[in-house]
Amino acid sequence: MKKIVVIPGDGIGKEVMEAALLVLDALDLDFEYEFAEAGHECFQKYGDTIPEETIRLVKGADATLFGAVTTVPGEKSAIITLRRELDLFVNLRPVRSLPGVGGLFSGLDFVIVRENTEDLYVGLEEYTGDGAVAKRVITRRACKRICKFAFDYAVDEGFERVAAVHKANVLKKTDGIFREEFYKVARNYPGIKAEDFYVDAMAMYLIKKPREFEVIVTTNMFGDILSDEAAALVGGLGVAPSANIGKKHGIFEPVHGSAPKIAGKNIANPTAMILSTTLMLKHLKKKKEATLIEKALKKTLKKGIKTPDIGGKHTTTQVAQAIRDELIKIKDHDSSQLK
Question: Is 0.70 surpassed by the pTM of this model?
């Protein structure tokens, strides 16, 4: 039995999590769910955005599903805290076209592998007499392991190209180290084409010729920006899943936030959360089950059953129920074929 911690969070996080669990339930998996709290409502109850009990539960789980949380000004970020506590050094952002979503391009299938622990996001800032200074932390260890993950992922998924993104022409030391470590790692993968691009050029290429890329690996801040840009190519943040992965743990979450303005209206798009559960299933070596959900999701979208943000008229619950129904049909069909 796998232990899955569920953190719905705030706002639409609760709604999309409920939708995702409705779909997952149709697979009859040997999962034990344990619910935990984090975010704004949690802070209002306990004075803490991420209680020690939540961290303890996540550390003891096989995987964690994370909905969305509302930021509390001046307080620690729940998801960043979990990334640091569990050393989740990979942020994985698949970019795949979906039927009926209306993205800028069709046929896209690439992934951005973002280093998740360093860069400017270490939060080392201080005021000066005339402004402020932020320190950027880049280590060879972190560069090496994120690049190795990217190449291993390419091999596992059947990709043939890995592109490093940096700004080593200006950030000669920090990004210079990243580029050096990238090519050191690349030597161990002679079957994979390794190339590198400046971040400003990549930002343009993602708009002009995104089909040319397969695996993109980069540092924390560049990855944050580029992955949101890439999400726009396939329909926006409502359809963008992500995974935070370390050596022992994984947290799987939609890219979007808690969206307080539409919370409680039952119109939030559950696609990103549902696709995040497929990333979790793959992480847990349940690729077949993940594929079944993906098939059911695509069939549902092809029928025009979708939420308003991507041109539909259906509620969150209706979309989730439709995906669940399709999933059950696919399962039953597969079972009858085996008899």
Answer: yes
